[in-house]
Structure formats: structure tokens, C-alpha cells
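cron nightly-structures :: item 1 of 1
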Amino acid sequence: FWHNEEKSFTITGNIKKEEIIKIAESIEKNKK
């Protein structure tokens, strides 16, 4: 149970990182 929660937390953490990267890239495009 606890192990599964840690896995799902890691997955959501990775998704958040990808979203941040996408937002950062779109901001860079808007600056140009």
C-alpha cells in the first residue's frame, strides 16, 4: 500500500516537471 503511494507520487511529480518544462518553453517562445 505505502509502496504504491510512493510510486503514484513519483509519477505525478514527473508529470508536474514535464508541465513546468512545457510552460517554460512556451514562455521562451512568447519572448521572441
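cron nightly-structures :: done
The CA atoms of residues 22 and 28 lie 10 Å apart.
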